[in-house]
Amino acid sequence: MFSPVVEIKKEWIESKYGRCVKQYNVSIKKTRNTTYFFEPERMSCLPVSLNDINKSLPRRWRCLLLWSISCLDDFRITFCLLKEYILSFIDKFFNREGRKVQKLQISYDYKESDALQVDSWIRFALKHSAEELDLRFSNGVQSSVEGFYKHYKLPHSLFRSKSLTNLTLSFCDLNLPSSIHLSSLKRLSLELIDISPDAITSLTSRCPLLEYLSFGGCNKLANLDIVISNPNLKFLEIWDDMTTFSETKFMIDAPNLHSLGFHVCLPRANYCLKNLPNLAKVSFYDFDPEVCLGKVCGEGDRNQLARLLGDIHHVKEIRLCSFFIQGLSIKEVQKLHFTSINATCIELETKLTKWELPGISYMLKSSPKLETLIIKPGLNEIWLGYDLKDKFGFDMKDFWKYEDFDFSSHLQNLKTVEIHIYVGSYKLGSVDEVLKRIENSYVQFVRFLLKNAISLEIMNIDCGEKNTSLCNDYGSLLKLMKMFAILPRASARCGVYIL
């Protein structure tokens, strides 16, 4: 016995009869080792027989059955017919076989006239004990015109399901009932939805097993205040983008939260993280450059970043994206006071560019309890503005040499360093240029760490993907290994490994 995945994606097409019909994709996920054959004479061996589908249709519609495709993990039947036939047939099949729906996916640009049909799809899934619902009522175009399109109102019965474990809702009206009880729900994702603080609290408090919650593009025109008391919620993830109204504010109050992820380019006027005593890990991810095209790190952004760092000063594990690091770089070159944090593990997404080195210095000065440092390539370079260009006039290769700070006391607990070198693509004739760039950035940074980390035990240096030109150029790799090998070390126990 296997649990089917029913996927409904609707788009208008013209049949050869000149009638408008709708296309549906119905997927049934295979959870047993069975081989499905798709030759015409073997169609009857499918769990949902195409012959049965044809027999269930009026003769004039049988020609609308188009094709079927197969893969290792699932099989998918794609056909075009009027909506009343497909749902009726699948419902009869599920009743006859006693099957449950594993997942229902609906993704299309909703129109108000479709409300009854969408209601029937959701009722069908809930009737057959669906475990996952993925309901997306816009492809992203409609959502950009607020108030022009009427949102689909979710049925109250959805919020009383005993079988749902995963729920994704996008561009719809939650229409929350007074009585909510999602007793099995573990993951909840809300996208392009307007939701009040009371609704967030009410919804999350009635999902006793909820572990993961995400907000994507929610409350673009209003404040987003997230107050959660659910003791089981462990991970919260946030997406904001530049279409969010700049005068709005953001606040999180979640005393039991363990991990927080931000995909953000700080479009709001203020971000506040409070009452997070159990927060152990925070990750700030680089924003999509296409979504935040032309983003400039202004003074407001720099102050926001410093405040956010202060809000998470107690967190033990912190991951910062290149946008965050470059914002801190500006604070550092302006010689502003740094915030002391208690992080023991810090991961920085950086290519060690000139615009990021001061920000890295800022973080090292702020982290006297640091034990593990991870350096991985970042994605973007932000636009700093002409008024700040002169602050970055230093020579990269000499940056760490002239840092006027006693790093040895701040790095005395550092034991593990992991560095992933950003090589990039280059032609064979520019190998020396790439090695020079690595020497001016990564080698100098490694020299600085080895000199000041008196308790360092292990440093792993990854020279990039195995299929990059540097990793295939053994002569260049040997030169690079020699550069690192001759560097002096403050810790006699430290081992440096080139991967």
UniProtKB/TrEMBL annotation:
Gene3D superfamilies: Ribonuclease Inhibitor
F-box/LRR-repeat protein 15/At3g58940/PEG3-like LRR domain mapped to chain residues: 118-263
Pfam families, per database record: LRR_At5g56370
Domain of life per record: Eukaryota
UniProt cross-references to InterPro entries, sorted A to Z: FBL13/AtMIF1-like, LRR_dom_sf, LRR_FXL15/At3g58940/PEG3-like
PANTHER family attached to this UniProt entry: EMB|CAB62440.1-RELATED, F-BOX/RNI SUPERFAMILY PROTEIN-RELATED
Protein name listed in UniProt: F-box/LRR-repeat protein 15/At3g58940/PEG3-like LRR domain-containing protein
Organism: Aquilegia coerulea (Rocky mountain columbine)
Taxonomic path: Eukaryota, Viridiplantae, Streptophyta, Embryophyta, Tracheophyta
